[in-house]
């Protein structure tokens, strides 16, 4: 049971039938690791099945309720190699190629190669020499279970990295889980989608998107916006050629010009967003959809107090005005566009460095 999550996060559903833990095991096996040790507090059927499915060796903690320190001790005791990557099972976006940057430092008296990012230690994504497990076991026996305390008694080589903060993102809370699900939903798409929704007109969806687009452009993101309209629309001016063609019964008209083109087509029923996206050329990096109340995963919900927002599994974050934070959901001021841009980049899978990435290391 995860205290901050409120449930066993290892078995949270992610996508395509995978759980958070099975995703990590699959990606580790795909990365080419010959031996995988799955260290857990105790045995249970789901863990035994996962270990069998991915050819992992399941080991359990000698002492229960000792946190990651006990798992490290048990895992290193079962290790078949001198050095092992110790990786938390709640890092869904970890890049296993990072091990290549750590391995050259695994030499001499060093017992731990500890990556750091923006000054933050990453002890659950580090290389450990097998004998470091004995130090963890001894520390637990004397009542020490904090990783920072135990590491200070070992020979540690800190290795500062300048990589995407998303690679070290932990799913520790319900809010972080929503973020992870939103990013994984975009992994399965040809091009990422972000929905911006609000429960009432006048909330400021258009203004929000208008302010978000240039902030994304700074990061090289080319956007397209698809607007949902419940009432129907008419773009033509009466008497113009295209309007006359449509009045005469044409089902579609198009205009081609040196600076672009425009197509208008009559349909018997509303087309979904994916259908429209498929019709737009491939030089777009992100599709933003604007809709009333409902959107696709991931959705940024806006709230100005005009009506109650509908918070369901598609909502990744809430941007609101003068309201209390929503439990289990990232909540920000409606005018905090810098954070909106960072969250959007994260949901796209774009790398985040320096100050842009710190918020994803501390959730």
Give me the CATH architecture of the largest domain, please.
Alpha-Beta Complex
Report the total helices. Answer: 12
Described by strand count, sense and barrel closure, the largest sheet is:
6 strands, parallel
| Strand segment tally | 15
Report the β-strand fraction as a percent range. Answer: 15-25%
Mean pLDDT: 90
Oligomer: single chain
- Give the C-level CATH assignment of the largest domain: Alpha Beta
Q: Please state how the strands of the largest beta sheet are arranged side by side.
A: 9-12-8-13-14-15
First-to-last CA distance: 18 Å
Structural shape: elongated
CATH topology assignment of the largest domain: Spore Coat Polysaccharide Biosynthesis Protein SpsA, Chain A
| Gyration radius, rounded | 25 Å
> Poorly predicted ranges (pLDDT <50, ≥5 residues)?
none
> How many structural domains?
2
Portion of residues in helices?
25-40%
* Element string (H = helix, E = strand): HEHEHEHEEEHHEHEHEHEEHEEEEHH
| CATH superfamily placement of the largest domain | Spore Coat Polysaccharide Biosynthesis Protein SpsA, Chain A
Structural class: alpha/beta
Structural overview:
- With about 375 residues, the chain is α/β, with parallel strands linked by helices.
- The protein folds into two domains: about 10-170, Spore Coat Polysaccharide Biosynthesis Protein SpsA, Chain A (Alpha-Beta Complex); about 175-235 and about 275-350, P-loop containing nucleotide triphosphate hydrolases (Rossmann fold, 3-Layer(aba) Sandwich), CATH 3.40.50.
- It has twelve helices and 15 strands.
- The protein has helices spanning about 20-30, 45-55, 70-75, 100, 130-140, 145-150, 175-185, 205-215, 240-245, 275, 335-350, 355-360; strands at about 35-40, 55-60, 85, 110-115, 120, 125-130, 155-160, 195-200, 225, 250-255, 260-265, 285-290, 300-305, 315-320, 330-335.
- Strands 9-12-8-13-14-15 form a six-stranded parallel sheet. Strands 3, 4, 5, 6 and 7 form a five-stranded mixed sheet that branches. The chain has a two-stranded parallel sheet with strand order 1-2.
- Strand 10 (about 250-255) and strand 11 form a beta hairpin.
- The longest helix is centred in the middle third of the chain and has 14 residues, at about 175-185.
- The two termini are about 20 Å apart.
- The model has no long low-confidence stretch (mean pLDDT about 90).
């Amino acid at each position: 049971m995860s205290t901050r999550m409120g449930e066993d996060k290892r078995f949270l559903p992610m996508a395509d039938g995978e759980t958070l833990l099975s995703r990590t095991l699959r990606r580790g096996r795909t990365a080419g690791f010959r031996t995988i040790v799955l260290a857990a507090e105790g045995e249970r059927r789901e863990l035994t099945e996962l270990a069998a499915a991915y050819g992992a060796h399941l080991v359990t903690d000698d002492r229960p309720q000792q946190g990651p320190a006990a798992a490290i001790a048990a895992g290193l005791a079962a290790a078949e190699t001198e050095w092992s990557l110790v990786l938390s099972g709640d890092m869904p976006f970890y890049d296993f190629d990072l091990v290549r940057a750590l391995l050259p430092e695994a030499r001499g008296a060093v017992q731990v190669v500890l990556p750091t990012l923006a000054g933050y230690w990453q002890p659950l994504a580090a290389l450990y020499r097998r004998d470091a497990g004995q130090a963890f076991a001894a520390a637990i026996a004397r009542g020490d279970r904090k990783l920072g305390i135990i590491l200070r008694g070992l020979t540690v080589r800190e290795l500062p990295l300048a990589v995407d903060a998303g690679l070290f993102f932990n799913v520790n809370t319900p809010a972080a889980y929503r973020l992870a699900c939103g990013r994984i939903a975009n992994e399965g798409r040809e091009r990422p989608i972000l929905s911006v929704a609000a429960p009432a007109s006048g909330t400021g969806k258009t203004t929000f998107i208008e302010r978000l687009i240039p902030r994304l452009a700074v990061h090289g993101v080319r956007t397209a916006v698809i607007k949902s309209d419940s009432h129907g629309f008419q773009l033509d001016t009466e008497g113009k050629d295209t309007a006359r063609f449509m009045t005469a019964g044409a089902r579609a008209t198009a205009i081609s010009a040196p600076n672009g083109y425009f197509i208008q087509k009559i349909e018997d029923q509303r087309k979904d967003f994916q259908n429209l996206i498929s019709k737009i050329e491939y030089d777009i990096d992100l599709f933003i959809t604007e809709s009333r109340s409902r959107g696709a995963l991931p959705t940024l919900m806006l709230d100005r107090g005009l009506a109650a927002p509908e918070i369901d599994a598609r909502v990744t974050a809430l941007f609101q005005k003068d309201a209390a934070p929503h439990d289990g959901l990232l909540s920000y001021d409606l005018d905090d566009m810098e954070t909106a841009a960072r969250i959007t980049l994260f949901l796209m899978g774009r790398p985040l460095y320096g100050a842009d990435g710190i918020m994803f290391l501390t959730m």
